[in-house]
Amino acid sequence: MKNDLYKEGYTQNREISWLHFDDRCLNEAKDKTVPLAERLKFVSIYTSNLTEFFMVRVGSLYDLAKASVGKTDHKSGMTPQQQLDAIYPMAKRGCAKRDTIFEDIRRKMNKAGVEDVPLSECTKTEIKFLKKYFRDRVAPLLAPQIVDIRHPFPNLQSGVIYIAALLKYKGYSVFGFVPVPSAVPAVIQLPAQDKVRFIHTEDLIEYFIQEIFPDSTVAEIMKLMAARSAYLDPEDEEFDEILDYRKKMIKVLKERRKMHVTMLVCSKKPSSVLKKYLLSHLGITNRSVFVTSAPLNLKYAFGLEKMMPEEIRKTMVFEPYEPKLTPQLDYSKKLLPQVMKKDVLLSYPYDSMEPFLQLVRESASDPDVVSIKMTAYRLASNARLINYLCQAAENGKEVDVLIELKARFDEQNNIDYSEMLEDSGVNVIYGFETYKVHSKICLITAIKEGVPVHAALVATGNFNENTARQYTDLAVMTGNPRITKDAVAFFKNMAIGKLDGRYRNLLVAPVSLKSTVLSLIERETAKGDKGRIFAKVNAVTDEEIIHALKEASCAGVKVTMIVRGISCILPGIEGKTENIEIRSVVGRYLEHSRIYIFGTGVQEKMYIASADFMTRNTENRVEIALPVLDKDIRKKIHAYVDTYLADNTKARQLMPNGRYHKIASEEEPFNAQEELMRTALSSRQTIHNVQHKTARVFATVYKEKK
């Protein structure tokens, strides 16, 4: 593969493509068909995405800029420094757009009876309430600090909001910092009879700064938050002496707190004195300083509806949707025998994850079940799944969990769960030094008439009970020996550290997934204009796959892709990618499912997978793609794909210039996610009418869940 792919003119820079994705998220906050409180959530999502981008991607570019002078990105020809030079102004324009959108939403929500109130507009009664609230609930949690010869400049923690002030005392001046405690809510509801009024806790602390630093005069005050690089590899030499991998990851998390600052967000433009002071102590330049008029903590958007009375809430948020139990199973009977007889497709969040959780819960106490094996990447907080696995181990089952401690930003959560699992007798392993285990697979083994039988679940997304209600993912539960034999071999190989295991049906990265995908692309390329390729993934960055798709297009193959985020391949370039069509869908739920389809009719090969078309997935992680063998499930996935391709509301088409445009259509508005919710609702009604016993089981399951 040539290193000058960008010279062929059909690729673009990964980071720029990512920023375009974040902009598509922000545009949802402008969509007048989206309820106001939901639009506010998209403002929060945009901000959270951008912060993570600066922690991970910008952090890595800084390291590359220092270490690799002259090294260029193969897909754009840009050096790390050139990428940084492009990112900062683009991100600042995005933040300015975000601030404008936020203010418009805030104003409209205020008119609708959900008032975001500046403290300067609070009544005397409200100020009295807030003063008591501050003194009783907030002040005891504060840890203010001044900076002088005996008090060094604080190590500003990434993502923590600080109130920074220039304080004047008699004869001298100092800087003061107050971190906003994570234990206090982001917003405080004010007493009100017929509407919702609230203020931001960060503003409350700023308002009472004089009580925090008595005897001082506040010359300047502002809120700020730093984002530090999170790009730290546990395989670096500095961690070599730590032999226990869990202890090594704990050390990595500590070191991350001291990484260099990539972005400093300020609530107002600092004076030249304060700016010079901050820049010198943080080791950054002016381009890293972002000034925003929006609150620094926007996560409150996800809890705001709890404050609203019912009448206001139903106009402000999406109509509630509860994931439905699939009608493919009879919940009045044990699930394991049913799964062993017939493959079952779960489509989150339209379907509930409850069948899988119930399967694990039943297996934990089933006398026939002897073992449960599972990979874990990102898990829910207070995960019931972990409790069921612990119960299984305590009941004498062999339980093996391969938990990935390097799941970025979930490291501490996974460290805690690994300790909890071990305490219950679960055999916990951590995977490989240089390969993250990102696959989503569970294997349950029972003994029937003296013979081991198996059921497996392979999914495109994490075994996370929370995100299964927010992300679109697919999972297949199967007892098909063609799959379960490979699953048995997979867990044996993982247990002995064997990465190069061979499998007959499962595609497993880094061994066979990429090579098979390339082979199937080549197969379709050989068919010319009769070839067909479809892929639904979150990102496309792998250069070999990009090149193969271009070759397929040149041969006349129709290539259709739904790419949620990054797409380094540009479609519609004459003589190169004119037969490639790429869409992105950004809506109520985060698109996360990965589907590969090659060919049509009897020659068709269909997979669901944990891997995107990214080099990190195809070469540097342990991933699994499941061949979809069941005819009924294949039909359902085709219907699923067709539904998304019919979307003319939330879908955007990628143009040759890297921009996204709305789908041009004269048809009635069609929203794929809404249609899939309606389909699931109609299926639920069928269950209610046909399986009366099931309703009682539903009630039991959801009662336990709540």
Task: Please specify the SSE layout and strand pairing.
Elements: H1 14-28, H2 36-67, H3 80-111, E1 114-116, H4 124-138, E2 145-147, E3 161-169, E4 172-179, E5 187-190, E6 196-200, H5 201-207, H6 209-212, E7 217-228, H7 245-256, E8 261-266, H8 272-282, E9 289-291, H9 310-316, H10 335-341, E10 344-348, H11 354-365, E11 369-376, H12 384-394, E12 398-403, H13 411-423, E13 427-429, E14 436-437, E15 441-448, E16 451-459, E17 471-478, H14 481-495, E18 507-509, H15 513-525, E19 532-537, H16 543-554, E20 558-563, E21 580-585, E22 590-591, E23 595-598, E24 605-609, H17 615-618, E25 621-627, H18 631-645, E26 651-654, E27 660-662, H19 672-690, H20 692-705
Parallel strand pairs: 1-6, 8-9, 11-12, 12-13, 14-25, 17-22, 19-20, 20-21
Antiparallel strand pairs: 2-4, 3-4, 3-7, 5-6, 7-8, 10-17, 11-15, 15-16, 16-17, 18-25, 19-23, 21-26, 23-24, 24-25, 26-27
Helix pairs in contact: 1-2, 1-3, 2-3, 11-12, 15-16, 18-19
Notes on the protein architecture:
The chain is of the alpha/beta class and 706 residues long. The chain has 3 domains: 5-316, Polyphosphate kinase middle domain (polyphosphate kinase like, 2-Layer Sandwich), CATH 3.30.1840; 335-503 and 676-705, Endonuclease Chain A (Endonuclease, Chain A, 2-Layer Sandwich); 507-670, Endonuclease, Chain A, CATH 3.30.870. Helix content is 38%, strand content 21%. It is built from 20 helices and 27 strands. The strands form 4 sheets. Strands 14, 18, 19, 20, 21, 23, 24, 25, 26 and 27 form a 10-stranded mixed sheet that branches. Strands 10, 11, 12, 13, 15, 16, 17 and 22 form an 8-stranded mixed sheet that branches. Strands 2-4-3-7-8-9 form a 6-stranded mixed sheet, with helices on one face. The chain is globular. The chain starts with 13 loop residues before the first helix and ends with a helix. Residues 234-243 and 685-706 have low confidence and may be disordered.
